Amino acid sequence: MQRFSLRFAALMLAVSLACSLVSRPARADDVADESEVQFNLGAERYQAGDFPQALAHFLASNRLANNRKVLFNIGRTYEQLRQYAEAHRYYSRSVVGETDEQTLARAKEAIERVAARVALLVVETDPPGAHLFLNRKDLGERGTAPQRIALPPASYRVIASLPGYEDASSERVEVTLGGERVVRLKLRRIVGTLRVQKPPGAAVRLDAENVPPSCIAPCDVSVAPGSHTVIVSLAGHRTQQVPISIAADTTSTIGPDLSPETGSLVVSSDERGAEVEIDGTIMGFTPVLITVPVGRHGVRVGARGFRSVLRDVDIRAAEQTTLDVELVASDTVEAASRVLESAEDAPASVSLIGSRELRAMRYPTIMEALRGTRGIYTTDDRGYPSLGIRGFGRPGAYGNRVLLLLDGMPLNDDYIWSSYVSYDSRADLEDIDHIEVVRGPGSVLYGTSAFSGVVNLVTRSRDVPTSREVGVSAAGDGVMRARARVTQRFGKNSGVWASVAGGQSSGRDFFFPEYVSDGPPEVAGYSRGVDGARFGTLNGRLWAGALSLAFYANHHDKHLPTGQYETLLGDGRTRQVDSRGFVELRFEPQLGEQVTSLTRLHVNGYRYRGYFAYAPADGGVETDTYQSAWVGAEQRLLWSPGRALTVSVGGEAQLHPSAHQTARTELGGSLLNDEESFSLGAAYGTVDLRPTEAVKLSAGGRLDIYSTFGSSFNPRLGLLAKPYEGANVKLLFGKAFKAPSVYELYYQGVGQVSSPQLRPENVHSLELELSQRFTKTLIATAAAFTNYVGDLISLESELGADGAEVLRFRNSSAPVGTMGVELELAREWREGWMVSGSYSWQRSVILGSRSLSALVNLQQAPGVGEVPNAPSHLASFKAGMPILARALTLMTRLTIEGSRYTQFRSDAAVPQPRTDAAVLWDFVFTGVESRFGLDYSVGIYNAFDARAAVPLSDEFRQRSLRISGRSLLASASITF
Predict the structure, then answer these.
(1) pLDDT tier at 7, thresholds 50, 70, 90
(2) What is the pLDDT of residues 801-819, one digit of tens each?
(3) Where in the chain is the domain with CATH 2.40.170.20?
């Protein structure tokens, strides 16, 4: 049997030798020849049964030229030597890579034959490819993982070794005959840590630029010990290579400063001196050459009074990019519809006093800024200056038929509904970017007091960069002022600004012939040193995205030099003190692509103190007070599915819990102590429809409900058309109301009784306005209008219950009708120039009846006189021009206000007097030194020293009061 086995083995060796000789092509090199010789010698010794010598020759042959057939024969030789573990190992190696099915079957049969005679140890490593050793490394390698090792039964310790990793070893593993054990080893990589701190966003590569980034800075990356080159790259910057030596188990830190790749950007605009902002940072003023890092940047070019132009610009390395923009004058207005829209699209007659004009003329007050605006005229009785619009401005009404807004928030008080347009409103206009003037009824949006018109003060935008401002100024009537402002930006959509301003005025001296016969000779009609004032304003806004918080407070303490209310002339104790303030919280989120929401919550306060000096026999100093605080809320939704349709709906509510007025004399005690509360609610809606691009229909209405009188509904209709290029036509109808005030309803004193039965005043208006834009800057406007005012509240005398004459507020049965036309031609600001001229004619009469024919024919009622304080003619001319290469600007204004009738007095012995027409010329030089942040101005108001007068109410003995004469204006401020 043994002899048969030896013969079979010899036969197999011969077959294998023949196969190997056939399968391998003849090679001429010495190694192949020597391997073949060794193989033949092994085969001979195997046939002779000399297995140890055969094994030596087969191993030598395999070392010279690795061959699967030789591996198989080595396994067979080990098997004959009963070294089954080695036989299993070489049988297993012989099948690696084998594809011949017969050979594979023969090898697998051999493996199965010896498997029962060995113990198997399966070794896996992480990562694979580790060199394997058993018990000791000096005993030699047992292959690479993963590996299946056949072993004699015993216990073994497996050692795994891989360059760049720490050796890993197992516990001793017992393997048994015919069994299989699995050992898994994880090798820990030998590394150091590379820490790249900056620049943020930079790609970090190791040793080559054409490989994926190892990480993005700031980051940590594990690196094999040794010398490496760290390559740091960032878009728009020059790539930097940093050599570094990494030690095992240590951290090496780098943070290279990459130099940006740059190009140049040339920015120019048709309006010289426009501000250039790149990625939110102001970089200069046009024309300007700027070095800019490579990449895409957002560029904003803007100037006050112009719409900002936004562009995305790509800057390439070492190349020059040119950006030339054409600025368009900003004519956007919000007060007409409570949404931003162009003046041409607004369903109202609108004028804008832009920031360029405000800065060029350095208007000290709102009243001065509005003088010369189409259809507007001013009155100052040295107590409360006020506005008249389109022939209606009743003396003594304190502007309560004009609604004054600050960024859309009403500033009128809740006592008389007075609007404040001088230092009683704010100390200066430096925080105001522009003023919107809306002529005609506005109750459809705002409710009470938006009767003759609405004036909206719009503060500077959120784009103002972080800065600090301080300034001083002087104006007419001895006014001296100082101010400071802080603007702090926290991010692109958040920031805060706050300003404080204050001043005082020495006022004027007066002579009133009406008082010559009163008092001692040293007075004799003179009122000296009793026209002064002190005032201060705090204003600001905090914003973060759609949320904003605005705050405002103003205090005004003014002496009265006119003997008003029959007080002692020239007595410095007669004065009025007004304080008004509010805090408003707004949330204006965008609810999807079509809906915008506005939520407003506001807290308001108003306090009045009036001190009126009378003779001791008349009670001495009378003190009148009023104090009120109120809260309000509003919710509005705007739906705009497209340009063709815009729908707005909303509602608001106000609660005035304590409207407290008192009156007492110094010697006689209390005259009045009345505390009332009232509330109001309103719902409103507007619809703007564009059936075509040339036609717009606007309709809206608002219902106000007051606890004091009931309700008032006020509609507005508008048809706007653009029949041809540059033309714009507006046909407008509207109604507005003024609610009876707390003072009118409840005030009572000596000779006056309360009037709780009052109804609201109403005005109906019809207007046609045509405008033609000839060029981008030249526009002409013509308008015709008629107003019908009914239920006017007037103080009238009647017989009381005791037969004595008393005063009471009543709704007048005599309406007032007004008709007028307006013309204007304006060349808007461009390249430092502007010119405009306007003319208004209006005629107001007290109508003889409520009929339409009486209004159309302006049929005057007999025996009632003319409407006071209603000039028939108004005209103005304005011009601005650059001087000294635009470093200096000269602006001038010429206003003409026609004569006005004074208050009609039926018992007067002379006809109703008229004041003289007034011609006022103002001019101002303004300059800017951008290098130092210096802004300065000097000018003269009323350069002709015109001495025209304005009508006064029946509260004065005088019929009229002269306006202020020539005065100097000067200011200087620094921004840093």
Answers:
(1) very low
(2) 777 888 999 999 999 999 9
(3) 332-975
Does position 24 have pLDDT exceeding 50, yes or no? Answer: no
| Kind and range of the H or E run holding 382 | none
SS3 category, 112? helix
Tell me if 423 sits within 8 A of 470, measured CB to CB. no
Whether residue 700 contacts residue 715, with contact meaning beta carbons closer than 8 Å, is answered with yes
Q: How many angstroms separate the CA atoms of 390 and 838, rounded?
A: 13
pLDDT for the residue 9: 45
CB 783 within 8 A of CB 769: yes
**Would you tell me which CATH number, out of the four given (1.10.357.20, 3.90.550.10, 2.60.40.1940, 2.60.40.1120), belongs to the domain 263-325?**
2.60.40.1120
Does the domain at 1-117 match CATH 1.25.40.10? Answer given as yes
d(CA 236, CA 242): 19
Backbone angles phi, psi at 918, to 5 degrees: -115, 130
DSSP 415: S
Taking the alpha carbons at both ends of the chain, their separation in whole angstroms is: 112
In terms of Cα–Cα distance, which of 412, 463, 407 is closest to 600? 407
Average pLDDT over residues 461-468: 90
- 819 contacts 867 by C-beta, under 8 angstroms: no
Separation of alpha carbons 56 and 580, rounded Å: 113
516 neighbors 560 (Cβ within 8 angstroms): no
Assign 888 to helix, strand or coil: strand
> What span, in angstroms and rounded, lies between the C-alpha atoms of 105 and 118?
20
CATH 2.60.40.1120 location in the chain = 192-254, 263-325
Q: Which residues pair with 584 in a beta bridge?
A: 550, 602
Q: Tokens for 547, please give them.
A: 């949320």
- Judging by DSSP bridges, how do beta strands 173-175 and 154-156 pair with one another? antiparallel
Chain centre to alpha carbon of residue 646:
23
Query: Topology of domain 332-975, per CATH?
Result: Maltoporin; Chain A (2.40.170)
Strands, E assignment, 139-217: 141-144, 147-151, 154-156, 158-161, 168-169, 173-175, 180-186, 192-196, 203-206, 215-216
User: Which residues of the chain form CATH 1.25.40.10?
Assistant: 1-117
The confidence score (pLDDT) of residue 107 equals 84
Q: Quote the CA–CA distance of 294 and 633 in Å, as a whole number.
A: 50
pTM of the full predicted structure? Answer: 0.75
79 closest CA partner among 103, 96, 58, 101: 58
Contact assessment for residue 788 and residue 854, using Cβ atoms and an 8 Å cutoff: no
How far apart CA 456 and CA 449 sit, in angstroms, is 13
The alpha carbons of the chain give a radius of gyration, in whole angstroms, of 48
Q: Is the pLDDT of residue 95 over 70?
A: yes
- Is 111's pLDDT higher than 90? no
What Å distances lie between residue 387 and 395, 419, 876, CA to CA?
10, 9, 16
Contact 476, 967 (CB under 8 A): yes
CA distances from 32 to 25, 35, 60 (A): 10, 5, 12
Domain 192-254 has CATH 2.60.40.1120: yes
Average pLDDT across the chain, whole number: 91
Retrieve residue 41's tokens.
């010698």
pLDDT band at 906 (very low <50, low <70, confident <90, very high): low
The string of pLDDT tens digits covering residues 706-741 is 999 999 999 999 999 999 999 999 999 999 999 999
Query: pLDDT digits over 197-248, tens only?
Result: 999 999 999 999 899 999 999 999 989 898 999 999 988 788 899 999 998 8
φ/ψ of 782, rounded to 5, equals -135, 140
Burial class (CB in 10 A: 0-12, 13-18, 19+), 606: buried
Q: Is the peptide bond before 146 cis (omega within 30 degrees of 0)?
A: yes
